């Protein structure tokens, strides 16, 4: 007996009913997405439209305007509000995608992964006091006192997680275009990987596994909770919301999305049903 065709995947919105979250669109066109050369100056009109679509810009009529007017990659950085208005495109629609073309990534020499590139927004997060604190928290807790070579810490671990998270989601985007993964999604995943351990205390897992139960009996606290709270403090105290907007994120949506990657969905029917079960 032949199985019925699986239902097409739909992209989960960051916030229910948000008009700014890209709508789910048919993925048939995604299979015809042309390859993008690393140098945007070499792009033709089709590559420009592919770049905008991959970045989350899903307005077919406006993309058609780019094709008809033969907008190439070399022209993208010079598009201003008046030129886009002549194309029937509002500047606010594409500003984030166009301005991101000239971003300069910073290279870090990682002991495991070699030379890895980091988005400027990731560097802004790394340079905060809240993240620099991770330099002084050993990855393996008390293991360093027994094995002197176990000296690596949460700082370099978090850099590696951010890098590998980016590799993973880019691979998914390439192999499963129907998922409609945008550059905005990639950046959010990398931020979550970078900040997932912000809440660790001294000696890492020993702090929430041994110290907290003894110091505060009855308090159910995990380092994931601490990471979410520390991330919120990091963003607010360093005034990073405008910086996030500068690089194409929507803070009121994406901060929630990043938190969910660290601690899991903040509110789900499954969690609610478990809570009501135990409360009775």
TrEMBL record:
Pfam families attached to this UniProt entry: HD (PF01966), SAM_2 (PF07647)
Top-level lineage group: Eukaryota
Keyword DNA damage: yes
Gene3D superfamilies, per the entry: Hypothetical protein af1432, Transcription Factor, Ets-1
Chain intervals for the UniProt region annotation (Disordered): 1-39
Catalytic activity: dGTP + H2O = 2'-deoxyguanosine + triphosphate + H(+); dCTP + H2O = 2'-deoxycytidine + triphosphate + H(+); dTTP + H2O = thymidine + triphosphate + H(+); dATP + H2O = 2'-deoxyadenosine + triphosphate + H(+)
Amino acid composition bias (Basic and acidic residues), ranges on this chain: 1-17
InterPro entries recorded: dGTPase-like (IPR050135), HD/PDEase_dom (IPR003607), HD_domain (IPR006674), SAM (IPR001660), SAM/pointed_sf (IPR013761)
Location (main, coarse): nucleus
Compartments it resides in: Chromosome
Signal peptide, first to last residue: none
Xref: PROSITE patterns: HD, SAM_DOMAIN
Keywords assigned: Allosteric enzyme, Antiviral defense, Chromosome, DNA damage, DNA repair, DNA replication, GTP-binding, Nucleotide-binding
UniProt GO BP: defense response to virus; dGTP catabolic process; DNA repair; DNA replication; regulation of innate immune response
SAM domain sequence ranges: 43-89
UniProt keyword Heme, yes or no: no
Domain HD span(s) in chain numbering: 154-280
Any GO MF annotation of the entry: GTP binding
A single Gene Ontology CC term: chromosome
Protein family: Belongs to the SAMHD1 family.
Cross-referenced PANTHER family: DEOXYNUCLEOSIDE TRIPHOSPHATE TRIPHOSPHOHYDROLASE, DEOXYNUCLEOSIDE TRIPHOSPHATE TRIPHOSPHOHYDROLASE SAMHD1
Name this protein carries in UniProt: Deoxynucleoside triphosphate triphosphohydrolase SAMHD1
């Amino acid at each position: 007996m032949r199985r019925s065709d699986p239902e097409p995947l739909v992209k989960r919105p960051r916030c229910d009913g948000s008009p700014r979250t890209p709508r789910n669109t048919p993925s048939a066109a995604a299979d015809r997405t042309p390859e993008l050369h690393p140098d945007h100056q070499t792009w033709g009109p089709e590559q420009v439209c592919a770049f905008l679509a991959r970045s989350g810009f899903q307005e077919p009529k406006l993309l058609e305007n780019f094709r008809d007017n033969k907008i190439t990659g070399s022209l993208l950085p010079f598009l201003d509000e008046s030129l886009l208005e002549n194309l029937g495109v509002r500047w606010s629609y594409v500003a984030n995608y166009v301005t991101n073309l000239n971003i300069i990534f910073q290279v870090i020499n990682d002991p495991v992964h070699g030379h890895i590139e980091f988005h400027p927004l990731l560097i802004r997060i790394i340079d905060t006091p809240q993240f620099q604190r991770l330099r002084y928290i050993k990855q393996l807790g008390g293991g360093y006192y027994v094995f002197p070579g176990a000296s690596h810490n949460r700082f370099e671990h978090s850099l590696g997680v951010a890098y590998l998270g980016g590799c993973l989601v880019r691979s998914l985007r390439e192999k499963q275009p129907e998922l409609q993964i945008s550059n905005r999604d990639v950046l959010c995943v990398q931020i979550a990987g970078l900040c997932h351990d912000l809440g660790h205390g001294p000696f890492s897992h020993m702090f929430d596994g041994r110290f907290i139960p003894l110091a505060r009996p009855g308090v159910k606290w995990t380092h994931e909770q601490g990471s979410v709270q520390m991330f919120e403090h990091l963003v607010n105290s360093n005034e990073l919301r405008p910086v996030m907007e500068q690089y194409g994120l929507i803070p009121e949506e994406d901060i929630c999305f990043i938190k969910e990657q660290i601690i899991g969905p903040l509110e789900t029917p499954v969690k609610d049903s478990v809570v009501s079960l135990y409360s009775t």
